[in-house]
Specification:
Length: about 180
C-alpha cells in the first residue's frame, strides 16, 4: 500500500506545523516571539514543501519508471494540468515557493543587518528545489519525475516571494515610528 494523496499530505502538513510549533515555543522563551514567529513560519513552509513534493500525489501504484538523469527538456515531462490549481503544474510549482521567499525576508529582517543574507538565502531556496527534484528522481515509488522546468518555476516563486518580502519590509520600515 502506498501512503499518499491529498489527505496524507494535509495530515503531514498539520503534524509538521505542530512539531515545528513546539520547537518555536521553546525558542521563543529565549529569543522572544517577534523573532521566533517568522523563523517558525519559514521552517514550517520548508517542511510543507518537502511534504507536498515528496509524498506521492496518489495512493495508486505509480507508473513512473526510475530515470538515471533529470529531464533537461524545458517544459518537459510534467503534465499540463494538476489537481489543485487549474492553471497547471507550472503555476503550482511557482506558487508553492512564494511563501518561503517572503518568510525568508521577514525572518532575516528581524536581525540587524540580516537583509544582507537575502541573496544567500534565495540561493539556498533554489538549492532546496534542486534537492527535491533529485530526491524525486532517486525515489521512483514517489511517482514523480525530476524536471529542470520545476527547478526554474520553484526558483521563480522564491524570487517573487523575496521581492514581495522586501517590499513589505520597506513599507514596514516607512510606517514604523522612529525612536
Amino acid at each position: 500500500m502506498v501512503i499518499g494523496g491529498p489527505t496524507a499530505m494535509l495530515v503531514l502538513v498539520a503534524l509538521s506545523g505542530v512539531a515545528t510549533g513546539l520547537v518555536a515555543l521553546a525558542v521563543a522563551q529565549r529569543m522572544g516571539w517577534r523573532r521566533t514567529v517568522p523563523m517558525w513560519l519559514l521552517v514550517w513552509s520548508l517542511a510543507c514543501l518537502v511534504v507536498i513534493t515528496l509524498v506521492p500525489s496518489s495512493t495508486a501504484t505509480p507508473v513512473v519508471v526510475h530515470t538515471e538523469v533529470c529531464s533537461f527538456d524545458y517544459d518537459g515531462p510534467a503534465p499540463d494540468g494538476f489537481w489543485i490549481i487549474p492553471g497547471g503544474q507550472r503555476l503550482l510549482n511557482t506558487l508553492v515557493f512564494i511563501p518561503s521567499g517572503a518568510l525568508l525576508v521577514w525572518t532575516l529582517g528581524q536581525f540587524r543587518r540580516g537583509l544582507r543574507w537575502v541573496l544567500p538565502g534565495l540561493l539556498a531556496l533554489a538549492g532546496c528545489s534542486v534537492a527535491i527534484e533529485l530526491a524525486q528522481q532517486k525515489v521512483s515509488r514517489l511517482g514523480r519525475a525530476c524536471d529542470v522546468t520545476d527547478m526554474v518555476d520553484n526558483t521563480l516563486g522564491a524570487i517573487i516571494g523575496v521581492v514581495l518580502g522586501l517590499m513589505a519590509v520597506g513599507v514596514a520600515r516607512l510606517v514604523k515610528p522612529r525612536r
